[in-house]
Amino acid sequence: MAIETKRIREDFPILKREVHGKPLVYLDNAATTQKPQVLIDALVEYYSSYNANIHRGIHALAEEATGKYEATRQTVADFIGAPDASNIVFTRNTTESINLVAHAWGRKFLTAGDEIVLSTMEHHSNLVPWQTLAKEKGVVLRFIDIDDDGQFVQDDIERHIGPKTKLVAVTHMSNVLGTINPVREIAERAHQHGALVLLDGAQSVPHLPVNVQELDCDFLAFSAHKMLGPTGVGVLYAKRELFEEMDPFLGGGEMIRRVQLEESTWNDVPWKFEAGTPNIGDVCAFSAAIDYLSGLGMENVRAHEIEMVQEGVRRLANVPGITIYGPESAERRGGVISFNLDNVHPHDLGTVLDHHGVAIRAGHHCAQPLMGRLDVVATARASFYVYNEKEEFDALIEGIEAAARLFRAPVHTGA
Amino acid sequence: MPQSIPEPEFDELYRELILDHYRNPRHSEPLSDADVVAEGYNPLCGDEVELRLNFENGSVSDLSFGGRGCSISRASGSMMTDLVIGKPIEDVRRLSEQFNKMMTDPDNEVPEELGDLEALQGVAKFPVRVKCATLAWHTLEDGFKQRDEGGLPPGGVVRHEE
Ligand SMILES: Cc1ncc(COP(=O)(O)O)c(C=O)c1O
Fold this sequence. Notes:
By secondary structure, chain A is of the alpha/beta class. Chain A has helices at 5-10, 37-50, 60-79, 94-109, 128-137, 154-160, 183-192, 204-207, 212-215, 240-245, 280-296, 298-317, 346-354, 368-374, 392-407, and strands at residues 18-19, 22-23, 25-26, 88-91, 115-119, 140-144, 165-171, 196-200, 219-223, 234-238, 256-259, 264-266, 322-324, 336-341, 358-359, 361-363, 379-383. Chain A is globular and about 75 Å long.
């Protein structure tokens, strides 16, 4: 069943609005996605009919809210093929999920000389927590580099993952290049050496079918807001035994079993990692976003994005002076196209496109080391989702051509 | 652009004078034997600026501007070279102050002394772009500071980060 964008677009009220007098063309989905009416309704329903604190009240509202919150945990577990709801911890976002692992697992189990393998295409949120840990513990960071096609260098995978490796933490799909990394193979190699694998799934879970048991990853982090869900909800999946042996991240209410003045005992997994009142309303509503995606089918979402990337690359490649980054093959990349236009800085391009109603991202995309690796200061990035249609490339290309005319001195073109 | 009638704001941002300085930057040939080299960098957008300065009798006798960045940062630096060359450092400091004021207060009346730089006034209405316009000037101030302190690092290069 193909994705019917015309019908889907009806479900997203924001797509009816105009920007600077032009219909909105929203191509900044890797930053955050728009929300369907069912998600907005679910938020309203929570606050207008069953708002209560969870796990503690003995009244009807508290029971309903607790029931819905825990049902969402199950919905998330099912969506990523996790064995059980207890494999799912709710956080604020991908960044917090990764920090949780760095603190609760890294601090407890890593010592000087241990190695963590990352890559040069990581988002800052899968880089900075490990840098901090490395400084504190004397842990060594190693980096898998990328080749000219934007893929991991195979030799680096073999060279860096070895007996000293304790963790391989890499992105499943790059938010800049779109590269879908061979994480199954990486997990196999890591496990042969007794290392764990953390996947940054911020881009993959929203756009690809992801099954944690098939991938055999040990941790998976992602954000609800990049998959039609509300801001303020993140997910950390982990294998049960890891959650059991990890220390809590934050201390306080909800995460304890018994508290005495001098010491306390921890609640069961997963609540041990959810200190204080969580983001109940947004978590409850998140299930509406997952149901919406499941209704479409993630295989279909993926197929739609392959088509969008193929068409997008084809259209962009016709623009004189354009450079497109990332894998040549649309099968190996998600719905993201980063590019640059000769003599036009991405910020200027972004401003001109905005005035054509087209929202893209311009900058370093929280991946400064990757920018250095590509030898650019910044890129422009168009990223797609289920409601984007090929017709929208017309506005994108028009805006890019307008920018080229505006900023390029005739004498400089083609230089 | 037949397909779009730019809104006033947009026109205010990309004034013809700015585009002209962007396309044909002034004094972009690096000075070969500069007294001070000051580099500016804005990690947020990756703009890079390189200023090469010569001084004579308390004045900026020559200045070149290079680097990579958006139209606003390039135009601002290019206009700065035109304005600053030949002026006493004290005057330049005052101009720099006036320019910063123009960037932070969109309603402020622009002093005539700023010349072409007046074209950048519209940038103040785009808060995310203000640092693009001020980078060259902040880098210049750093270059002056180093000259005053006489304590130039080896090679005479000063680094400024926004
Ligand atoms: C690959 C990747 N990792 C991590 C993040 C961080 O996500 P969040 O800001 O929701 O924590 C993002 C989103 O910007 C991303 O694209």
